[in-house]
Design brief:
The protein has 137 residues and is an alpha+beta fold. 12% of the residues lie in helices and 29% in strands. The chain has one domain: Peptide methionine sulfoxide reductase (Metal Binding Protein, Guanine Nucleotide Exchange Factor, Chain A), CATH 2.170.150.20. It binds zinc ion (ZN).
Length: 137
Protein backbone atom coordinates (compact mmCIF):
# COMPACT_ATOMS: atom_id res chain seq x y z
CA UNK A 1 0.00 0.00 0.00
CA UNK A 2 1.26 3.46 -0.74
CA UNK A 3 -0.05 6.96 -0.32
CA UNK A 4 0.10 9.72 -2.90
CA UNK A 5 -0.18 12.48 -0.36
CA UNK A 6 -0.47 13.12 3.34
CA UNK A 7 -4.24 13.22 2.88
CA UNK A 8 -4.47 9.46 2.44
CA UNK A 9 -3.28 8.11 5.80
CA UNK A 10 -5.75 6.64 8.31
CA UNK A 11 -4.56 9.05 11.01
CA UNK A 12 -5.31 12.67 10.03
CA UNK A 13 -4.33 15.67 12.14
CA UNK A 14 -3.98 19.36 11.39
CA UNK A 15 -0.60 21.04 11.48
CA UNK A 16 -1.62 22.75 14.74
CA UNK A 17 -2.51 19.39 16.27
CA UNK A 18 0.85 17.90 15.27
CA UNK A 19 2.67 20.91 16.72
CA UNK A 20 0.76 20.55 20.00
CA UNK A 21 1.44 16.81 20.24
CA UNK A 22 5.14 16.73 19.28
CA UNK A 23 8.15 18.58 20.63
CA UNK A 24 9.93 20.84 18.09
CA UNK A 25 12.51 18.22 17.04
CA UNK A 26 9.92 15.46 16.76
CA UNK A 27 7.74 17.78 14.69
CA UNK A 28 10.52 18.72 12.26
CA UNK A 29 11.58 15.10 11.78
CA UNK A 30 8.19 13.39 11.67
CA UNK A 31 6.21 15.99 9.75
CA UNK A 32 8.91 17.71 7.64
CA UNK A 33 11.38 14.87 7.05
CA UNK A 34 14.21 16.58 8.90
CA UNK A 35 17.14 14.43 10.05
CA UNK A 36 18.50 14.67 13.58
CA UNK A 37 22.28 15.01 13.83
CA UNK A 38 24.15 11.73 14.19
CA UNK A 39 24.89 10.60 17.75
CA UNK A 40 22.46 13.16 19.22
CA UNK A 41 19.21 11.17 19.44
CA UNK A 42 18.20 9.25 22.53
CA UNK A 43 18.13 5.78 20.97
CA UNK A 44 21.26 5.36 18.81
CA UNK A 45 23.03 3.72 21.78
CA UNK A 46 19.99 2.28 23.55
CA UNK A 47 19.83 -1.52 23.92
CA UNK A 48 17.03 -2.33 26.37
CA UNK A 49 14.49 -5.05 25.54
CA UNK A 50 11.20 -3.76 24.22
CA UNK A 51 9.81 -2.12 21.14
CA UNK A 52 9.88 1.21 19.35
CA UNK A 53 6.56 2.85 18.45
CA UNK A 54 5.67 5.65 16.04
CA UNK A 55 5.93 9.05 17.73
CA UNK A 56 2.94 10.24 15.76
CA UNK A 57 0.38 7.50 16.36
CA UNK A 58 1.90 4.85 18.67
CA UNK A 59 1.94 2.04 16.08
CA UNK A 60 4.62 -0.54 17.02
CA UNK A 61 7.28 -0.28 14.31
CA UNK A 62 10.52 -2.00 15.40
CA UNK A 63 11.44 -4.68 17.95
CA UNK A 64 14.58 -4.28 20.04
CA UNK A 65 15.71 -7.75 18.89
CA UNK A 66 16.17 -6.41 15.35
CA UNK A 67 18.27 -3.40 16.40
CA UNK A 68 21.97 -3.47 15.62
CA UNK A 69 24.94 -1.15 15.91
CA UNK A 70 25.53 0.25 12.42
CA UNK A 71 28.06 2.78 13.72
CA UNK A 72 26.19 5.60 12.00
CA UNK A 73 24.79 7.41 15.03
CA UNK A 74 21.13 6.62 14.40
CA UNK A 75 19.07 3.70 15.66
CA UNK A 76 19.28 0.96 13.04
CA UNK A 77 17.12 -2.12 12.56
CA UNK A 78 17.23 -4.94 10.02
CA UNK A 79 13.44 -5.17 9.74
CA UNK A 80 10.16 -3.62 10.93
CA UNK A 81 7.72 -5.64 13.07
CA UNK A 82 5.91 -6.43 9.81
CA UNK A 83 5.87 -5.13 6.25
CA UNK A 84 2.50 -3.37 6.61
CA UNK A 85 3.48 -0.83 9.27
CA UNK A 86 6.06 0.84 7.02
CA UNK A 87 5.60 2.75 3.79
CA UNK A 88 8.53 3.04 1.37
CA UNK A 89 8.77 6.16 -0.78
CA UNK A 90 11.49 6.98 -3.32
CA UNK A 91 13.26 10.13 -2.13
CA UNK A 92 15.24 12.15 -4.71
CA UNK A 93 16.18 15.04 -2.41
CA UNK A 94 19.73 16.20 -1.68
CA UNK A 95 21.02 14.91 -5.04
CA UNK A 96 20.61 11.27 -4.03
CA UNK A 97 18.11 8.52 -4.72
CA UNK A 98 17.16 6.98 -1.42
CA UNK A 99 14.17 5.09 -0.06
CA UNK A 100 12.36 7.03 2.62
CA UNK A 101 10.40 5.10 5.24
CA UNK A 102 7.23 6.48 6.78
CA UNK A 103 4.67 5.23 9.25
CA UNK A 104 1.94 3.69 7.11
CA UNK A 105 -0.74 4.74 9.60
CA UNK A 106 -0.04 8.46 10.10
CA UNK A 107 2.51 9.32 7.41
CA UNK A 108 5.20 10.44 9.83
CA UNK A 109 8.71 10.44 8.37
CA UNK A 110 10.91 7.89 10.15
CA UNK A 111 14.18 7.73 8.20
CA UNK A 112 15.55 5.77 5.25
CA UNK A 113 16.21 2.15 4.37
CA UNK A 114 19.49 1.05 2.76
CA UNK A 115 20.48 -2.28 1.16
CA UNK A 116 23.62 -2.72 3.28
CA UNK A 117 22.23 -4.25 6.48
CA UNK A 118 23.03 -7.55 8.16
CA UNK A 119 21.37 -10.92 7.76
CA UNK A 120 18.66 -12.13 7.70
CA UNK A 121 17.24 -9.28 5.57
CA UNK A 122 20.31 -7.42 4.30
CA UNK A 123 18.46 -4.17 4.97
CA UNK A 124 19.33 -1.31 7.28
CA UNK A 125 16.47 0.84 8.51
CA UNK A 126 18.20 4.04 9.60
CA UNK A 127 15.67 5.76 11.85
CA UNK A 128 15.59 9.08 13.68
CA UNK A 129 15.25 8.75 17.45
CA UNK A 130 12.87 11.71 17.32
CA UNK A 131 10.41 9.71 15.21
CA UNK A 132 10.04 6.81 17.62
CA UNK A 133 9.16 6.19 21.26
CA UNK A 134 10.53 3.24 23.23
CA UNK A 135 8.29 1.05 25.34
CA UNK A 136 10.08 -1.44 27.61
CA UNK A 137 9.17 -5.11 27.59
ZN1 LIG B 1 2.46 6.73 12.92
Amino acid sequence: MSHDSHDDYPVQKSDAEWRAQLDPMQYQVARHAATERAFTGKYWDHWDAGRYNCIGCGTPLFAAETKFDAGCGWPSYYEPVNAEVIERVVDRSHGMVRVEVRCNNCGSHLGHVFPDGPEPTGERFCINSAAIDFSPK
